[in-house]
Amino acid sequence: MKVEALPAIKGNYNLQDYEETYKTFDWKETEKSFSWSETGKVNMAYEAIDRHAESFRKNKIALYYRNDSRKEKYTFKELKELTNKAGNVLKSYGDVEKGDRVFIFMPRSPEFYFAALGAIKLGAIVGPLFEAFMEGAVKDRLEDSEAKVLVTTPDLLYRVPVDQLPALKTIFIVGTDVEEDGKYVDFLKHLEDAPSSLDIEWVDRNDGLILHYTSGSTGKPKGVLHVHNAMIQHYQTAKWVLDLQEEDIYWCTADPGWVTGTSYGMFGPWLTGTSNVIIGGRFSPDAWYKTIEEFGVTVWYSAPTSFRMLMGAGDEVIKKYNLSTLRHILSVGEPLNPEVIRWGRKVFNHRIHDTWWMTETGAHLICNYPSMEIKPGSMGKPIPGVEAAIVDDQGNVLPPNRMGNLAIKRGWPSMMHTIWNNQAKYDSYFFPNGWYVSGDSAYMDEDGYFWFQGRVDDVIMTAGERVGPFEVESKLLEHPAVAEAGVIGKPDPVRGEIIKAFVALMDGYEESDELKEDIRQFVKKGFAAHAAPREIEFRDKLPKTRSGKIMRRVLKAWELDLPVGDLSTMED
Ligand code: WT7
């Protein structure tokens, strides 16, 4: 495909000569930025917060926060003290120790970050849970991780099946008028009284830091464990890719329940000592543009779905706001349409920089940098220190312009450490010759740019969120009317994909719109709103293999009017 490249702009970090840097760069260089490279003992929360609180940045704003009812800001020094206090509360009332899983299930708020960083200071492993999760999703994650402590709000507590979680010893409630009772502890009350100094637990670079659950095409969600060592790459890419500078005001729109909201919503910006804007509440074009104006956002990291929604809201609304502070815009999570890049140039006068990576990879791998030409529609090139290739199903590297599996040579610093309780699953990501297989298909052009083509598996990306069809099918099957269910991603101009469910009903149930709505609500209330099928279609019978597996590719072919392919394994 012939596309016109957008000219490079000047970046602040030296990727000016990408080819040269790519040839010579070694992650050991980045390690030297941290004093722990000599002692080997490290703590992410120290590097992200305390180090700055003890430097010329101590009175610099680390966190700007706003939601519908609160507006606050915290300096690095204040964040150091508050995270120390949070650590003391978690330790004194929850007996939190190194390696314990501390889950945090609450809307975006300063307290989320106090608790997360406080837990990290104790050497605990933080498990962030997206606030929209309902009981089933919460239970799966707390159960698999054997979480010992949960931090949540009174509003969300009803979604935590405490009686069914024997490992869960203490629940910290963030709210007012909390009744303390046995395992329930008032977080804010004790936060106020707690000492503001804390002995940090120094850990090894490969000790656990954060556990993000993510979906595959089969089975329950899996826990992707990241370790403190990942900071090397968070830090380096916050410079190279986010291009963060001392004066920047940075806004990442992702929720910390997802990896973008932690790697680049807390670690990356704070490791580089950047002022970080965190916004609670719902999406609306006015609220978003107002955020940029109000805080003077200079670097903005968001997702294609959001850009498409803003684009859909029209250009008039943009004129109401002063967006002149913006200097660098980035995107992640799904393919970034060239049309959106064109729109971005028109309305913001900036290129939108696509970045590619995954929960499992922990940080940026393939990106467009400021100092590089952008080919709209391409994810860019591998960052220095990362070797990417297109490989066939045996792990052999393919030449340019051939489609295949997007693969990365094992050994980048932020690579996941394991899959929680499932080393076999972890091992299954790699070819024996050391290539990590992403599950995406792509090709590389003759200039070394990578072009996303699709998922190899059935994983659905809807509005930037990754949903496993199996989990949705399992929930659907719990509905009394549902006999069989098959779930696919259906292309959608705004959301990338929407979730569509094919359902065969139990005998005695009549097809109706009310029943469709009832089934939809069942998934929404029992699992998660973003995972509820937007479309449901009743079928008498679903296509299955002889071993009884729903053939999603056949459902997809039906839906998209494509050839169904090989049906030799299908039951009669
Ligand atoms: C999957 C990973 C890591 C942050 C957000 C998603 C898709 C990610 C891009 C991109 C096309 C992309 C891939 C990938 N994806 N970035 N720039 N262009 N697709 O993390 O939930 O772990 O999902 O998101 O399919 O495998 P995730």
TrEMBL record:
Domain AMP-binding enzyme C-terminal: start-end pairs: 471-549
Taxonomy, superkingdom: Bacteria
GO BP terms: acetyl-CoA biosynthetic process
Keyword flag Nucleus: no
Keywords: Acetylation, ATP-binding, Ligase, Nucleotide-binding
UniProt enzyme class: ligase
InterPro entries: AMP-bd_C (IPR025110), AMP-bd_C_sf (IPR045851), AMP-binding_CS (IPR020845), AMP-dep_synth/lig_dom (IPR000873), ANL_N_sf (IPR042099)
Record GO cellular component, one term: cytosol
Entry GO MF terms: acetate-CoA ligase activity; ATP binding
EC number: 6.2.1.1
PROSITE patterns per record: AMP_BINDING
Pfam families, sorted: AMP-binding, AMP-binding_C
AMP-dependent synthetase/ligase domain residues: 50-411
Homology family: Belongs to the ATP-dependent AMP-binding enzyme family.
Protein name: acetate--CoA ligase
